[in-house]
Amino acid sequence: MRIGSDPLDRLSIPDGTTVEEHDLVTDGNVIVGGQSTVDFGVRGHSVMAGERVSFGGHIEAEGDCRLDMWSTVDDNVLVGENAYLGERVQIDGELKVAGDLDIGDDVDIEDGFEANGWIVIRNPMPTIVFLFVYLSQLLRVGEEEAAEEVLSSLTEDDGPDHDPLLIPRGATVSDDRWQVSTPATIGDDCRLHGNVRAEELTVGRDGVVFGSLRARGDVAVGRGTEIKGDVTTRSGDVRIGPGVTVWGDVVAENVALHENATIDGTMRASGEMRMHTDEVLDRPDETAEAMAEAAEELGDDQAAVAAADETVAGEHGETSAEEAGEASDDGDDEPVEAHE
């Protein structure tokens, strides 16, 4: 990530993210911009939230958890490593921390807290201020690569191949709606509840959205995804990929529909409406690549088995020929009776 880029300039939902019994579950980090409302509980690796963020359920973080000033959590907070709570954070449940706890003034934890490491009561520096000061010092001493690594570490999980879940500032996330004023990207194999509202929308492959999609700009829906609602855009185009099912209507300026897609409602376009046979997403299809690799490995295994069978068959054929030759030689040595 470049220094000048903003990691929270869009809603980004990584591959495999699901909503399970009012919990938003992902394998990577969760980063929430300030003044956002998340009515779900959150389960991820590390959880970071800006000022005045509201969580409607519990937080479970395998790594660290950092909540800035005036943030609220309606249930328990369980942290696998260290926790940092800013001034006037409110937790309406219990706080359990496996590591160290850095806690600010006037923090309200209704059911008490427990930490296995050091407990420091002070005002932790707000996350954004801390990052700004730290990055400024790195840049001042000419450590631009180190600064870029710090930014990358915030948006990448410690484990391999896990992208973070990014929620921009001022967003609303609930069972009813996902509403942001930025572009939004939903990854592959996601299962989400609620209507999605964004500037632009890209939905990945093989997912399910229990709601509608609405954007000001373009909307793209990848292969095999099911949208249990409408797909509409105010002034953009809609592109529907192969195997997509839309249970509602499709409304846009221009509509590009794959020949293998299914629309249960009506389609309305003020401009062009056409059929196509192409993919609508530019990003790599990891599922197809994995299937191709598996097929290649299977083909290699089958070729190896066939080669082994041929070798065994050849050895067996040579053995049979040798046995036949020995039998013929034995027959020539036997005496032959003469008949008068």
Mind explaining what this structure looks like?
It is a single chain. It is built from 3 helices and 38 strands. It is α/β, with parallel strands linked by helices. The protein folds into 3 domains: 156 residues, no CATH class; 94 residues, no CATH class; 27 residues. Helix 1 packs antiparallel against helix 2. InterPro entries: BacA/B, Trimer_LpxA-like_sf. This is Acyltransferase.
Query: Separation of termini?
Result: 106 Å
Mean pLDDT: 84
Q: How many domains?
A: 3
- Residue stretches low in confidence (pLDDT < 50, at least 5 long) are 1-5, 333-340
Count of helix runs:
3
Principal-axes geometry comes out as: globular
- Strand order, main sheet: write it out: 17-14-11-8-5-21-22-25-28-31-34-37
Radius of gyration: 31 Å
Strand content: 25-35%
Number of strands: 38
Q: Helical proportion?
A: 10-25%
Given helix and strand content, the structural type is alpha/beta
Oligomer: single chain
Please describe the biggest sheet, giving its number of strands, its sense, and whether it closes into a barrel.
12 strands, mixed
Biased composition (Low complexity): 301-311
Organism: Halomicrobium mukohataei (strain ATCC 700874 / DSM 12286 / JCM 9738 / NCIMB 13541) (Haloarcula mukohataei)
Protein name: Acyltransferase
Biased composition (Acidic residues): 320-340
Outline of the structure:
21% of the residues lie in helices and 33% in strands. It is of the alpha/beta class and 340 residues long. It is globular and about 65 Å long.
